[in-house]
Amino acid sequence: MDRPLRIAGRDYQSRLLIGTGKYRDLEETQRAVEASGAEIVTMAMRRATLPVKGAGEQEEASLLECLPPERYTILPNTAGCYDAESALRTCRLARELLETDLVKLEVLGDRETLHPDIPETLRAAKQLVREGFHVLAYTNDDPVAARRLEELGCVAVMPMGAPIGSGLGIRNPLNILKILDQASVPILVDAGVGTASDAAFAMELGCDAVLMNTAIAAAREPVRMAVAMRQAVQAGRQAYLAGRMRARFTGSPSSPSGGLLVP
After folding, report:
1. Cα(120)–Cα(138) distance, rounded to whole angstroms?
2. Residue 251 CB neighbour total at 10 angstroms
3. 71, 139, 161, 211: least buried by Cβ within 10 Å?
4. pLDDT tens, position by position, 180-231
5. N- to C-terminal Cα separation, the chain
6. 3-class SS of residue 212
7. Non-local CB neighbours of 215 within 8 Å, separated by 6+ positions
């Protein structure tokens, strides 16, 4: 039996978290989220609180009406923040509007690569923890930065597999393994997943979960890809728990060599 994913004292059966941006409309967003089986859904504050426009017209339904907090754990994020102050303001707004202390901290340092600004992330994380927030912190794949975020009190650390929206997969698996080896909080790969094999690989490494958005939303068939990602995360987790065979440089017959009719 596998243990559930535990974040901030709450258990989740799904180890796939998905974002809500880049879909064609609210209906597709809702269908993809349902197909993914995700229980935690992340959204930027501007999308959580404002009506969404579709097909050139204002829609009456908001994202929160399609993805009600009674059914999903809404994880507001600080997407688009480039300094600690703006990230802090966004989290405080999320607490007030959504009545949640659970936040995804994302402080970017470069508009082209979307790499995180680690000093600003650490500064924001320290203050948010002081204010009682449960912080899931997005960071690069640096084991030192990951350890610092855990030491500050983040409830989960989310190293990037590759740049946000790149679909390049996990570029530095050895760094992820080092982060996992030293961590006592959940480690979630966030950013860079492009297809199901990337998600399965993250789970096979031992990651506790995977967060993705573009890999599903930008697929030719997002709902079908959501199903694939759900199954990939499940398969990767089972493979990790089962323990892979030892890799060999020589062949090893799968049939017994004794008792053959012809020697």
Report:
1. 12
2. 6
3. 71
4. 999 999 999 999 999 999 999 999 999 999 999 999 999 999 999 999 999 9
5. 44
6. strand
7. 167, 193, 194, 195, 198, 199, 225, 229
> What is the reported pTM?
0.89
Q: How far apart, in whole angstroms, are the C-alpha atoms of residue 196 and residue 152? A: 33
Closest CA to 155 of 9, 4, 3: 9
Give the residue from 243, 239, 196 showing the smallest Cα distance to 221. Answer: 196
Residues near 261 by beta carbon (within 8 Å), at least 6 away in sequence: none
Q: Give the distance between the most distant pair of CA atoms in the chain.
A: 78
Cβ-Cβ contacts under 8 Å for 185 (sequence gap 6 or more): 150, 154, 155, 156, 157
Q: Which two tokens stand for residue 184?
A: 């006592």
Evaluate whether 45 touches 19 at the Cβ level (below 8 Å): no
Element (H, E) at 203: helix 196-205
Which segment of 4-8, 51-55, 192-196, 219-223 scores lowest on mean pLDDT?
A: 51-55
For residue 238, the tally of other CB atoms under 10 A from its CB is: 13
Q: How many helices (H) and strands (E) does the chain have?
A: 10, 12
Identify whether the C-beta of residue 215 lies closer than 8 Å to the C-beta of residue 195. Answer: yes
Distance CA 82, CA 114 (A): 10
Q: What share of the chain is helix, strand, coil (3-state, %, to 5)?
A: 40, 20, 40
- Alpha helix segments (H runs only) across 161-210: 173-182, 196-205
- Report residue 221: phi and psi, to 5°: -125, 90
On the question of pLDDT at 49 being above 70, the answer is no
Q: Which amino acid is at 25?
A: D
Packing angle, helices 84-98 and 118-130, rounded to 10: 40
